Structure formats: structure tokens, C-alpha cells
Amino acid sequence: MMIGKEQKGSNMLVSVSGRLDVVTAPEFQKVCVELADQGTPVVVVDFAELEYISSAGLRSVLFLAKKLKAQGGELKFCGLKGMVEDVFRVSGFHSMFTIAPTAGDIPGM
């Protein structure tokens, strides 16, 4: 898994590629928790290059969403496709989060 970060005003775009599973979820969670702890108001996670997400990956997404919300922030997603989009739909995450085709489709990004 590769993680990239790009500051967009006061918000942050986090690009994730590869697999988000039991092995890589802790690294993803660590990077995103650091952003939440820094007071980043909106974290947009771009999953355009993510090939696979497991239940461990979904748990890390939920953990991050709760942490951001507790600090007045928000978690949003873009670039979902294929298996990752299917998992978000089946798990109900599609109705829980703001999801856009690209980061440019999210206001402030």
C-alpha cells in the first residue's frame, strides 16, 4: 500500500493505492489519525488506485471517521470503483459518507 498526502487549503487529500487490509490498515489509520490530531477539518480519501479493502480496512475507516467527528472534522471519499465501491455499498458505507467521483467534485478540494 502507498499513501500520499496533499494539502488543499485547510483540508487534506489522502491518496491510497494497493490493498487496505489487516496488514496495511494500521499504517493507514496512523497517518489519518495524525491528520485528525493536527485539527484537519476535512480529510478526503482518494481510493481511485485502491484495489482491495478488507473488513480491517473498513474498521480503520470507521475509527478515523469517529475520531474526526469528535474533533469537529469530517471524512469524505472519492474515486471508489470496482470491488472497493461494491464493498462500500454492501457495507452501507455509501450512505454514511460523502462520496464523489473525484476530489475536484468535493467543495473545497
Notable characteristics:
109 residues, Transcription Regulator spoIIAA, 5-stranded mixed sheet
Could you walk me through the main structural features you see in this protein, from its secondary elements to its overall organization?
This protein is an alpha/beta fold and about 110 residues long. It is built from four helices and five strands. It has one domain: 2-Layer Sandwich (Transcription Regulator spoIIAA). The chain has helices at about 25-35, 55-70, 80-90, 95; strands at about 1-10, 10-20, 40-55, 75-80, 100. A five-stranded mixed sheet has the order 1-2-3-4-5. The protein starts with a strand and ends in a 9-residue tail after the last strand. About 35% of the residues are buried.
Structural class: alpha/beta
Q: Major beta sheet, specifics?
A: 5 strands, mixed
Mean pLDDT, all residues: 94
CATH level-two architecture: 2-Layer Sandwich
Element string (H = helix, E = strand): EEHEHEHHE
What name is given to the CATH topology?
Transcription Regulator spoIIAA
Radius of gyration: 12 Å
How far apart the termini lie comes to: 23 Å
In CATH terms, the superfamily is: STAS domain
User: So what's the overall shape?
Assistant: globular
Overall tally of domains: 1
Low-confidence stretches: none
Instruction: List the strand order in the largest sheet.
Output: 1-2-3-4-5
Tally of extended strands? Answer: 5
Strand content: 25-35%
CATH class: Alpha Beta
Number of H/I helices: 4
Helix residue percentage: 25-40%
